[in-house]
Amino acid sequence: MVDLKLENQTVKIEKGELVSYNVGGYEYIHQKGSPGWRNADTEMFPIIGPTADAGFLVKTPKGNAVQDQHGLLRELDYKVMDKSGDTVVLVKEYKANTKVKNAKFPDKSTAAELFWPYDFKFQKSFQLKKDGLHIAFEIEGENGMPFMLGYHPAFKLHSENARIEAHGSTIGIPAIIEVGNRAMPIRDCKSITLKDQKDLRITTEGFGNFMLWTEVMNMVCIEPVTFYPYAVEQVKLHHGFLGLNDKNTIFKVHLHPLH
Predict the structure, then answer these.
(1) Which numeric CATH code is attached to 2-49+75-90+121-258?
(2) What is the pLDDT of residue 186?
(3) How far apart are CA 151 and CA 213, in angstroms?
(4) In this structure, what is the dihedral angle of CA atoms 256, 5, 253, 52, given to the nearest 10 degrees?
(5) Exposure string (b/e) for 158-168, b if CB count within 10 Å is 16 or more?
(6) How far is the C-alpha of 225 from the C-alpha of 236, rounded, in Å?
(7) Low-confidence residues of the chain: pLDDT under 50
(8) How far apart are CA 126 and CA 77, in angstroms?
(9) 215 CB-near residues (< 8 Å, 6+ apart)
(10) How far is residue 147's CA from residue 6's CA, in Å, rounded to a whole number?
(11) I want to staple 11 with a disulfide (CB 3.0 to 4.6 A). Which of 4, 78, 124, 195 is the partner?
(12) What subunit structure does UniProt give (predicted)?
């Protein structure tokens, strides 16, 4: 467990996962074991979305890759590269075409192993500042490598009338539940506010869109994404790729408590 602290803000990170962001005794992050989702946060890379209908195959310029839902990054382990009082830097590295065991197999998937035809290095960092928690993702790899990136944090809800404000509209939790597993897209959006007993503004750089998902009233996932995967058929998922270059190697998320 890695702990960060700054004044009345504390952060707990377990194997790279943000399991707590607490400000003055108020917990913003969904707690493992509570109804809704078994995790607290994860990353979706190098693809977002399901692939079962496409035989778990995703087209790339170097041929088909085998990917399960939301990619293979989550199957790799983070290493702590740097740690100070208010900052931690974690890294995952992958060698092209290395077979990775799929944790969903065999209970939830028929794909036993996954692979990606490109090397990459994926860095995730957390830094506490006076204005909140800053999370950054940095990708290193071959120039032009196709990829999507999504960040998938889950937030604890404290009241029955918790809601989301985005693009000047208010979205209730029941409306998100009704959409189901496809998740609700909020396109062309860089800032969302979670309205609850205490409000939290989530702002992003590089992603450009959000997805909202939950099945319960006590938590909601507010997910910055580069692409909404249900906009295309699974066999056309490659249409949502970005190409890695100097302009899109760093992506940022800021969790800003509003007091």
Answers:
(1) 2.70.98.10
(2) 98
(3) 12
(4) -120
(5) eeeebbbebee
(6) 17
(7) none
(8) 17
(9) 36, 177
(10) 34
(11) 4
(12) Monomer.
For residue 20, give both structure tokens: 């707590």
Distance CA 225, CA 211 (A): 7
pLDDT at residue 52 in the model: 95
Beta-carbon neighbour count of residue 99 at 10 Å?
A: 11
pLDDT value at position 103? 94
CA distance 129 to 138: 19
Which 3 state secondary structure label does DSSP give 230?
Answer: helix
| Concatenated DSSP letters of 137-199 | EEEEESTT-EE--EE--EEE--STT-EEEETTEEEEHHHHHHHGGG-EEE-S-SEEEEESSSE
Kind of pairing between the strands at 113-114 and 100-101 = antiparallel
pLDDT value, residue 129: 97
Q: What is the pLDDT of residue 246?
A: 85
The domain locations on the chain are 2-49+75-90+121-258
pLDDT at 166: 96
The residue with tokens 């889950």 is 154
Residue 92: closest CA among 149, 28, 133: 149
